[in-house]
Amino acid sequence: MRLGLGAPVDPEDLQEFKQLAISAGAVPVATVTGRRERPDSRYFMGSGKAEELKEAARASDADVILVDHALSPSQERNLEKLIERRVLDRNGLILDIFAQRARSFEGKLEVELAQLKHISSRLVRGWTHLERQKGGIGLRGPGETQLETDRRIIGQRVRVLTKRLEKIRQQRETGRQMRAEIPVPSLALVGYTNAGKSTLFRALTGADAYVANQLFATLDPTVRRVMLPGGTAVVAADTVGFIRELPHELVAAFQSTLTEARAATLLLHVVDASNPRRDEQIAQVDAVLEEIGAQDIPQLLVYNKIDRIESAPHLDRNADGRAVAVWISAQHGTGLDLLVTAVAERLARFARRARLRVPASAGALRSRLYAAQAVRGETSAPDGSIELSVELPDLELLTLARTSGVQILEVQGSDMPCAPGDLYLQSSALLGASK
Question: According to the model, what pLDDT value does residue 414 have?
Fold first, then answer.
């Protein structure tokens, strides 16, 4: 069921909703559309349209009614009573898809939490045999209706899930802080659902990411290391896709999963170039990014599926010569070299080659640099110290320059030895110029 509010039903919206239904495992057997200026408080649609929906469900022997709108609990109950079939609104349908696709422990907890918050407002009717009864031996009721019992159980489960997720977030944050000691530039693939993010992720990293032509094929984030030309190591993360009218409870529940996007150095915003509403989808993704606090992270637009529009791969630059968009086909592997070039250019300010000297006693620092795969070469000096060729972000080079016993010998782009104070000035100037 799709109702146009104040305007005719958009065929693209209807097709997307059908894809959602198919992704959930449903087989669409009938479609009812309509137009209304404002929702009806009883059925969301008018009573006449509700009767039409009832007749369509009966004629097609439908098991469940899917409504491409967010229904209030009372509207959902009224429709179920009238049609005598289960009614599921858009939010409930997306939650059901997420419940099917979540694989990681954290993802399952987040989906369950979102589901509990969704159904908590839809609890109705206590069981009469559990209502408060008159006193007396053997005649006392449990002291609460089934409705109150359900609410209490759900509330307890919500608190348990919230505590578990908070513990997972703390563990993830601890790990992120440890990695932040010697950080590696990170990429996060974001975009509208079914834009081809997982296909591109597999093409870039070689990872065995799940790929399917369906909405929300990926829920749990996958992280892999990628080597750019010149030996620069970056971390790439594939994230959940976005969609119009994404339920707020899902955005709230998946805050920890979406941390990969918030903590990224650069966002690869993957767009289905063949979709006629791609500009609208870009705006929808940007809105969700703003909701999760990732609106200020630099973006590189990646227009995917150019094989469907018979376009050649190319790179778009702005007036300053900076790469802002790449046109590729991840499925056919065309234009990936342009994408890698653009990513390397955009990340150039985050990593620089340098040569530094550390004392022989600085084994822990040397181990961390190797663990971060930041070392490009190593030689031993006559005095027993170690000279390392590294590739690190400017701020990390600045931190090393301030570390006791560490001497910065040379920084990429300068043939002169570099003192800590000089490095501070160079880093500050470079960071200021890149804003």
Answer: 42
Which residue is it, tokens 């955009």? 346
For tokens 């594939």, name the residue. 238
Amino acid at 335: G
Helix crossing, 197-205 with 336-346: angle to 10°? 80
The Cα–Cα gap between 141 and 138 comes to: 9
Which residue is associated with the tokens 């990926």? 218
Residue 409 φ/ψ, nearest 5 degrees: -90, -40
pTM for this prediction: 0.68
3-state helix, strand, coil in the chain (%, to 5): 45, 20, 35
Long-range contacts of 379-388 (CB under 8 A, 24+ apart): 381/357, 384/359, 384/360, 385/357, 385/358, 385/359, 385/360, 386/357, 386/358, 386/359, 386/360, 386/362, 387/355, 387/356, 387/357, 388/355, 388/356, 388/357, 388/358
- Low-confidence stretches of the chain (pLDDT < 70) are 1-7, 123-147, 173, 175-184, 207-221, 229-232, 247-250, 252-257, 348-351, 394-395, 412-435
Beta strand spans in 247-332 (E): 266-272, 299-304, 314-317, 323-327
Residue 178 pLDDT:
58
Q: Strand runs (DSSP E) across 15-172, as ranges?
A: 33-36, 64-67, 86-89
Residue 428: what pLDDT?
36
pLDDT score at 11: 83
Q: Quote the pLDDT of residue 218.
A: 53
Looking at beta carbons, which pairs linking 361-366 to residues 24 or more positions away fall under 8 Å? 361/405, 362/386, 362/405, 362/406, 365/403, 365/406
The confidence score (pLDDT) of residue 431 equals 34
Q: What is the pLDDT of residue 136?
A: 43
Helix (H, G, I), strand (E, B) or coil at 125: coil
Q: What is the chain's Cα-based Rg? A: 28
Q: Quote the strand ranges of 318-406, DSSP E.
A: 323-327, 352-358, 375-380, 386-392
Q: By the 8 A CB rule, do 344 and 357 touch?
A: no
- The side-by-side arrangement of strands in the sheet containing 266-272 is 222-227, 233-238, 186-191, 266-272, 299-304, 323-327, 314-317
pLDDT of residue 134: 45
Using alpha carbons, select from 35, 36, 118 the residue that is nearest to residue 76: 118
Amino acid in position 227: M
